[in-house]
Amino acid sequence: MENHYDAGDLVRVSGAFKDSAGTAIDPSVVKFKFKRPDTGAVTTYTYGTDSQLVKDSVGNYHVDVSADAAGAWRYRFYSTGTGQAAEQGQFFADADLVV
């Protein structure tokens, strides 16, 4: 089932990084990017530089996205260096139905 929220919600998206044995690891560099449905603008955050990308525990990160426009919001967690990996997803913000 697809994740649906109301336009205007604050949506928490999470990403996890594991090694080939399934053990949680912290990659050398962790990044997160998302694409707005209304303008197509892409925003990128880097862990350790941008406070929006938060580390919850070893290998586990999250970003709270302000879904202030209706449509499909696409996002991607990815890393480089040791622990290179990627995980992507999307959620939908439904338009305000009140007239």
What does this structure look like?
The protein has 99 residues and is mostly beta strands. It contains no helices and eight strands. It has strands spanning 4-6, 10-16, 29-35, 42-46, 54-57, 60-66, 71-80, 86-94. It has a five-stranded mixed β-sheet with strand order 1-8-7-3-4, with no helix packed on it. The protein has a three-stranded antiparallel β-sheet with strand order 2-6-5, with no helix packed on it. The mean pLDDT is 94.
What is the tally of helical segments? 0
- Order the strands across the largest sheet as they lie in space: 1-8-7-3-4
Structural category is mainly beta
- Shape summary: elongated
Q: Strand share of the residues?
A: over 45%
Mean pLDDT: 94
- Which ranges are low-confidence, i.e. pLDDT below 50, for 5 or more consecutive residues? none
Instruction: Note the gap between the termini.
Output: 28 Å
Q: How much helix is in the residues?
A: under 10%
The value of Rg in angstroms is 14 Å
Series of H and E elements: EEEEEEEE
Record field, number of beta strands: 8
Largest sheet: 5 strands, mixed
Give a quick summary of the entry.
0% of the residues lie in helices and 53% in strands. It has no helices and 8 strands.
